[in-house]
Amino acid sequence: MAVSELVAQNVVKEFRDKKKTFLALDQIDLTVGEHEFVSLLGPSGCGKSTLLRLVAGLDKVSEGKILLRDKEISKPGRDRGVVFQQYSLLPWMHAWENVAFALKKDRTKTKQKKKELAYHFLELVGLKGFEDVYPSQMSGGMQQRVAIARALVYKPNLLLMDEPFGALDAQTRKEMQDLVLKVFTEARSSVLFVTHDVDEAIYLSDRVYVMSAKPGRMAKEINIELPKPRDWNVQLSENFLKYKREILVELQNQKKLK
Amino acid sequence: MGKLRLISASGILLVLAAWALVTYTGLVDALFLPTPTQVLLEAKKQLDDGTLFLDIEMSFYRILMGFVLSTIFALPIGVLMGTSKYWNAFWEPLVGFIRYMPAVAFIPLSILWFGTSDLQKFFIIFIGVFFQAVIMIADNCKTVKKSVVEVGLTLGLNKFEIIKDIIFRAALPSIWDTLRTIWGWAWTYLVVAELVAASSGLGFRIMQAQRYLSTETIILGILVIGILGLVTDLLFSYLAKIMFPWREREKISN
Ligand SMILES: Nc1ncnc2c1ncn2[C@@H]1O[C@H](COP(=O)(O)OP(=O)(O)O)[C@@H](O)[C@H]1O
Ligand SMILES: [Mg+2]
């Protein structure tokens, strides 16, 4: 791992209201290397989304630092792409316009070029022929495909995804996982991926951080050394099950400590 | 759908039938309530001598001006109020206070300032609807989902672009509904203004008719106002369908 795309050092996040402060993240360290796919795994409420939002620049850290290629972040920016869990398409735009909208700030490209790029990336995520469809006409899976195309089209260095398939049915979810593997291998992006699905984390990642809740902490870091490119069969391999056991034991221990 | 239309039509027909019944049978004196025939004859008379269209034209011009003036100012102020806490802090107490002052109470003052000119009508409509419109448009913007705003942020849009390209666009259908509601209120204020001080227009015609106990003219005026209101309301919803084709589309299957 030569270059670090993302480094988080001693990140603390407190939510304050008038009555009390709530410690959501405690002393988080995290790195994502260049071209690396890293997952954050943990029980609901352990602060995965909070951490992702900090990296996205949508919230501010209470303590600590978040560095993107050695530069401290202060606000959202086009060096990062975000895919939210749901409802993130602009409903008044066709699919291709939603994708092209991500290129709005790009002054180097003509309108025609932006449209071509949008069409290209929609094809990449398997939506050829659905360019002129409104989000309200699309299923949840199709909408997430458009959201992924939108996050890819402007080639951010780091992609952040917060349980992007959480709202999808099991079958669509499988399809989307394979889509992600294919697309991100091709795009050679660095990815920080949030999920609470153990299989999904192992299947997709080069490295998995397991978090624990109350307060949100890093509990375990596991390198996933499974052959690439991966396909669905890997999920039955001995190694895969070894990782799965390791993670499940960790999560189980967390519960016992409560 | 056809069934519902039938039910809607029967509601209107029922009222018409009741009206016909009580008037043709002489149950109610024609002085108080004219028969449908008398109203139709009055309509024909006014169509022939041109007064009806002149009145409609006059009233429509006034309401349109009052409405457009109010909207031109209410739109930017409302959108900014709904998107900036500083604007909101400045305008909210002011607008919140004034909008509870009854516009009708401003009529004497308005006559003092503008006489019985068209300006006075614009002013009353403005007082009546501007402040309501501002608050409602601000609310339309405030209810835009945070998630779409954050999409804009993560794509690197600045504050102005977020307001223009995301919040305003997302709020537009509900802002349109607000304008439709406001348009209805503008009618009421127009007629009130014309009843009190005018020498033309539908409200004036109604007021003048009272002096000559010409109830058929009054009923005709009320009906015409109702029909105009209905027609413009339908126009608003028709335009909404054209402008916002992305709402309520059928799902397609992949
Ligand atoms: N804006 C906020 N204000 C107060 N508490 C919050 C806020 N956002 C999240 N939290 C709290 O922080 C904790 C972590 O939330 P979150 O990051 O959404 O967890 P996860 O995504 O892992 O399910 C939760 O207990 C949640 O209630
Ligand atoms: Mg979450």
Automatic annotation (TrEMBL), chain A:
Domain ABC transporter: 6-238
Top-rank lineage group of the source organism: Bacteria
One Gene Ontology molecular-function label: ATP binding
Database matches in CDD domains: ABC_NrtD_SsuB_transporters
Keywords: ATP-binding, Nucleotide-binding, Translocase, Transport
Pfam families reported for this sequence: ABC_tran
Keyword Transcription annotated: no
PROSITE patterns the UniProt entry points to: ABC_TRANSPORTER_1, ABC_TRANSPORTER_2
InterPro entries: AAA+_ATPase, ABC_transporter-like_ATP-bd, ABC_transporter-like_CS, ABC_transporter_ATP-bind, P-loop_NTPase
Protein name according to UniProt: ATP-binding cassette domain-containing protein
Source organism of this protein record: Terrilactibacillus tamarindi
Phylogenetic lineage: Bacteria, Bacillati, Bacillota, Bacilli, Bacillales
TrEMBL record, chain B:
Gene3D superfamilies in the record: MetI-like (1.10.3720.10)
InterPro entries: MetI-like (IPR000515), MetI-like_sf (IPR035906)
Protein location: Cell membrane
Highest rank taxon of the organism: Bacteria
Keyword tRNA-binding (UniProt): no
Transmembrane intervals: 60-82, 94-116, 122-138, 182-206, 218-240
A GO CC term attached to the entry: plasma membrane
Presence of keyword Cell membrane: yes
GO process terms (BP): transmembrane transport
Domain called ABC transmembrane type-1: residue spans: 56-236
Matching Pfam families: BPD_transp_1
Membrane-topology annotation of the record: Multi-pass membrane protein
Keywords, alphabetical: Cell membrane, Membrane, Transmembrane, Transmembrane helix, Transport
PANTHER family with a match to the protein in the record: ABC TRANSPORTER PERMEASE PROTEIN MJ0413-RELATED, ALKANE SULFONATE ABC TRANSPORTER-RELATED, MEMBRANE SUBUNIT
Family: Belongs to the binding-protein-dependent transport system permease family.
Protein name: ABC transporter permease subunit
Organism: Terrilactibacillus tamarindi
